[in-house]
């Protein structure tokens, strides 16, 4: 699996959610609405989720193992850090 494109939409208002990201895998599959969140231990990603009938949030799409999650997180956070250096469109 190769992440072939990362698109970062920075949040303009101050909150714990810093950006919303879309990734493309192997130029064939897209996952939208990955969130970059500021937590107590630093930045992390939250996969797209939906609120279930019981009030709990459940991931719609997510990595099966921690190695894949870490790989996606590293790529997404690197793209976010790069986006921070770019000027905001006016």
From TrEMBL:
Keyword Endoplasmic reticulum set for record: no
- Which Pfam families does this chain map to? SpoVG
- Residue spans crossing the bilayer: none
Query: Keywords in UniProt for this one?
Result: Cell cycle, Cell division, Septation
Looking up SUPFAM superfamilies in the UniProt record yields: SpoVG-like (SSF160537)
- In its keyword annotation, does this UniProt entry include Cell cycle? yes
Domain of life per record: Bacteria
What family is this?
Belongs to the SpoVG family.
Describe the task this protein carries out. Could be involved in septation.
Protein name in UniProt: Putative septation protein SpoVG
Gene encoding the protein: spoVG
């Amino acid at each position: 699996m190769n992440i072939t494109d990362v698109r970062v939409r920075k949040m303009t208002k101050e909150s714990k959610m810093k950006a919303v990201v879309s990734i493309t895998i192997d130029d064939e599959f897209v996952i939208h609405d990955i969130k970059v969140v500021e937590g107590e231990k630093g930045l992390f990603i939250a996969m797209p989720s939906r609120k279930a009938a019981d009030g709990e949030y459940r991931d719609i799409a997510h990595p099966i193992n921690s190695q894949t999650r870490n790989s996606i997180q590293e790529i997404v956070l690197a793209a976010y850090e790069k986006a921070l250096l770019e000027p905001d469109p006016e």
